[in-house]
Amino acid sequence: MQRQEIVISGSGGQGVVLGGIIVAEAAAIYEDRFATHNQSYGPEARGGASKSEVIISDGAIHFPEVENPDILVALTQEAVDKFAGTVKPDGILITDTMVKKLPAKGEYKTYVLPIRATAEEVRGQIVTNMVTLGALVVITKIVGLEALKQAVLARIPKGTEAINMQALEAGMKIAEKEL
Amino acid sequence: MSKREVRLMQGNEACAEAALYAGVKFFAGYPITPATEIMEILSRKLPQVGGVFLQMEDEISSMAAVIGASIGGLKSLTATSGPGFTLKQENIGYAAMVEIPCVIVDVQRGGPSTGLPTLPAQMDVMQARWGTHGDHPIVVLCPSTVYEYYTLTVQAVNFAEMLRTPVIVLSDAIVGHLREKVVLPELGELKIVNRKMTTVAPKDFLPYKADEDGVPPFVNYGTGYRYHITSNNHDEGGFPATNNHQIADSLLRRLHDKVEKRRSEIVITEEIMTEDADVIIFAYGCTARSAYSAVEEARKKGMKVGLIKALTLWPFPFEVLLKYSKQAKHVIVPEMNLGQLAGEVERTLKDCPVKVTRLNRIDGRMITPEQIVSTISEVI
User: Is A72 part of any domain?
Assistant: First the structure.
């Protein structure tokens, strides 16, 4: 597979950094491909915009930054406003139904999903990243589902397996409806 | 089955793990972005291996604590970023003068002063070389990948122990925070060097009497050997010799010679697709990653471009540049500063028919492969 670049963006507390790490680990450890993960955040400790950059490739990854992602997940209005313009023409934008002002229709494909509302139903904001990953994998197949599940289980605290898997599957379900 | 572990690892985490691998048993520091992870990890892990972790009141005292612990016999390391690195400089000079092994990791961010606290830069290249006063020797290693961050941290500890001198690991906010796939070396796979201990009896011991290799054998302080340490110019007994020109000259020359004697071991570079290159990119740290991608791009377009990656910045690796001084027509030096290492490249090639072109970026963002490719197109 060619180099694929994914950006997951939202606000602090939604777990976008951990979400990105899990995708990268799914590819690097459980599918034996190359992956990098980069995070950026403002100087503030909580709140504010938060972003995970993941690159997955079958070859070594040198330049580690994402300028024009193939896939953008933008969970907040701020993230959409900031990053939607960077998506590649043949790319994918996955955003949330709570985002009221969508960008003017680009060449890329847009999916608007109730990610945040689903997370609230399952457990609350804390599982937003799991719902996101479920939806992301169904739509983009960027990593295999099995690899993703293994990566999730390796990262989450013991005793939270059931709730995280439930959130992951809820995310898959809302995405399957859109395919 | 191989015991090698495959991990998605952050650069700073690799540095901390490598310190443990190399046998570091003491860390003192003061938190600062983008270096804090090294300290956080070692605060948890050092006590588990019988080591000591100290958070000090500032960077000056933490450098002093690192030197003290090393005098006592522990392999010692600290980690910081630009502003903290500045504060450590006085004591780094002390360590160079009194020949105490120690490793200082500087995860570079944008400066000067507190500058761009969360953003990458390569602005401490000259601070790493000349940040402390006096004509001191220094070794500076510079990783561009998470794996190199691991191996070079091990090397830094080794070189410090071998040479009895401070060694700098000069990383940056990109390599420090990047997570990438690494296959970690097994225990025993990388060479570990321990400082050379004296074999003479306490009555015959002269703390600064060097062996052939220019390095005096060590004793741990407080083990029954008379051992005086002063940062003044000193004789072999370790006592001040501040008016003795001959001792002043021979001491300082020995400090440099002990590094120069091991030059071939210390100077580490990598040559990538350079065999037929007309254009050479000379790069280091995170910028070497952009340069690697740029070389791949340029090759696709049929341009004969190669990369020299400097993993050792000081002593400056002039040999590898001279090797290509007849073959290459152009050398491009991309750096996230206004040309700190480019000056050394120009100095090395001043009598050669090679044109050196600088490519500089100082806005807190990486130089992109596209920028380097377009510079290549401009020069050829």
Answer: yes
Distance from CA of B284 to the nearest CA of A (A): 13
The backbone torsions φ and ψ at residue B33, rounded to the nearest 5 degrees and listed phi first, read -70, 140
Does this model's pTM top 0.90? My answer is yes
Q: What is the pLDDT of residue A39?
A: 84
Q: Do A25 and B8 touch (CB under 8 A)?
A: yes
Chain A residues closer than 8 Å to B368 by CB: 63, 65, 67
Neighbours of A104 (CB within 10 A): 6
- How many domains does chain B fold into? 2
Distance separating alpha carbons of residues B222 and A10, to the nearest angstrom? 56
Asked whether residue B158 is assigned to any structural domain, the reply reads yes
Q: Residue B183 pLDDT more than 70?
A: yes
Look up the domain containing A106 and give its range. Answer: 4-114+140-156
On the 0-12 / 13-18 / 19+ scale of CB atoms within 10 A, B142 is buried
Q: Which domain holds residue B110?
A: 6-183
Average pLDDT over residues B317-346: 98
pLDDT by residue (tens digit) across B81-124? 999 999 999 999 999 999 999 999 999 999 999 999 999 999 99
- Inter-chain contact A67–B7, Cβ cutoff 8 Å? no
Tokens read off for B282: 């000379």
Contacts of B371 (CB under 8 A, 6+ apart): B290, B334, B359, B361
User: Looking at the 3D structure of chain A, how many domains does it have?
Assistant: 1
Q: pLDDT tens digit string along A69-90? A: 999 999 999 999 999 999 999 9
pLDDT digits (tens, 9 = 90+) for B236-293: 999 999 999 999 999 999 999 999 999 999 999 999 999 999 999 999 999 999 999 9
Q: B296 and A62: CB-CB below 8 Å?
A: yes
Give how far B292 is from chain A: nearest CA, Å. 6
Residues B306 and B164 in one domain: no
> Is residue B197, in this structure, part of any structural domain at all?
no
Alpha helices in B131-167 (DSSP H): 146-163
For chain B, what's the residue count? 380
